[in-house]
Every structure is written in structure tokens, then in C-alpha cells.
Amino acid sequence: MSNTRPRREFRDRDNRDRRERSFDDSLFEKVVHIGRCSKVVSGGRRFSFSALVVVGNRNGSVGVGYGRANGVPEAVRKATDHARSGMQPFALQDGTIPHGVIGHADGGEVMLRPASPGTGLIAGGGIRAVLEAFGAKNVLSKSMRSNNSLATVRATMNALGQLRTYETILALRGKSYNKNS
User: Fold this and answer.
1) Please, are residues 136 and 97 in contact by the beta-carbon 8 Å criterion?
2) Dist CA 107 CA 109 (whole Å)
3) Of 61, 158, 67, 72, whose CA–CA distance to 109 is shortest?
4) Are 146 and 107 in contact, with CB atoms under 8 Å apart?
5) pLDDT tens string 60-79
6) Which range (32-36, 53-57, 151-155, 167-171) has the least confidence?
7) Is 76 exposed, middle or buried (0-12, 13-18, 19+ CB in 10 A)?
8) What totals of helices (H) and strands (E) does the chain contain, helices first?
9) Global model pTM greater than 0.85
10) What residues contact residue 138 under an 8 Å CB cut-off, 6+ apart?
């Protein structure tokens, strides 16, 4: 006797079809931080996890995502989806940023400065992950005030959001850009 049951679709625990997710290989993904939270219940401890992920195309667009779940892979997946949906374009100029800027978010404060070619990416932790995903090759940075990775990543995104190119500023002022003069 043959099995005539219809084939069951593969679904996640939250009943979402996994096949609808599209993977874009051109995006750079980096897990910045994984946190573990424990809750004491009768019979022991129950752990949940949070993940902070940065996604970018290395050509001026970057997004940050934060996800929480009972398992690390699910938390990373949620954070990655959140980061992909929140990608934003920023000003990138010859592998560096157009001008110096200071970003603030939560308790974090981040200073970014353009650097000459060959300097490299002088950054650590979450700031380096954001700048790598952004596509910057020569940037100097300094993290001030907070050591919290979420705060420094958000402050870096705030700093990138303040960047303006020369052409953008002229357009805002209603003037034209003449390269010869």
C-alpha cells in the first residue's frame, strides 16, 4: 500500500515557510554580539539569546538588526532579517567618508574621521563591523563613553547618517556643481 498523504511543507517553529527567504550572496553579514539571558524556573535555568548583526553591500549601504530567541541560530536569523529590511544608503567617497563626524545613540558616542589611502580601518568591535559592511577602507574612529556593543553600533549608524557629500550640500542650497572652477 502506497503512502498517499500529501507532502508536508517544511516550516519553522513560528509557522513561517522557510523557502520564502531569499539569500543575496553579495551582502556582507557579521554577527557583532551574542548575549545570553537566564531565567530561573522550577527545575533549573531557562536560557534565551539575543544577537546583534550588521549587514551591508560594501558599497555604501548598511543595516543593523537585533533579534531575540530561545536558540542562537534563530536569534541570528531574526537579527539578519531585521538588518536586511533596514538597510540604508550613506555617503561613501573614494573608500573613506567625506568629512569627520560624531555620532550619539543611547550611551554611546563614536567619532569617525576620514583617512588618507593606505591607512586602513582603524576601528574595533561593532564600529569595525559597521564600517566593513559599509565599504569604508580608510577611516579613523574612536569609541567614547560606552563599551556596550549595541550602543556603539547605533552611534556609528547615527554618525553615518550625518554624512553629506559636497554635491549633496550644493544641491540642498540650490546651487550647481562646477568641477572646472
Assistant:
1) yes
2) 7
3) 158
4) yes
5) 899 999 999 999 999 999 99
6) 167-171
7) buried
8) 4, 8
9) no
10) 95, 96, 114, 115, 116, 117, 118, 119, 120, 121
Coil, helix or strand at residue 174: coil
What is the rounded distance in angstroms from the CA atom of residue 85 to the CA atom of residue 160? 18
Radius of gyration of the chain (CA): 21
Among candidate residues 76, 22, 18, 25, the one with its CA nearest the CA of residue 52: 76
Consecutive H or E run containing 116: none
Give the strand order in the sheet containing 101-105.
Answer: 101-105, 108-114, 139-144, 121-122
CB 35 within 8 A of CB 50: yes
Q: Which residue has the cell 553629506?
A: 164
Cell of 109: 558616542
Q: List strand residue ranges (DSSP E) for the chain, in order.
A: 28-41, 44-56, 61-69, 88-89, 101-105, 108-114, 121-122, 139-144
- Calpha distance 141→123 (Å, rounded): 5
Q: For residue 86, which of 104, 60, 52, 62 has the smallest C-alpha distance?
A: 62
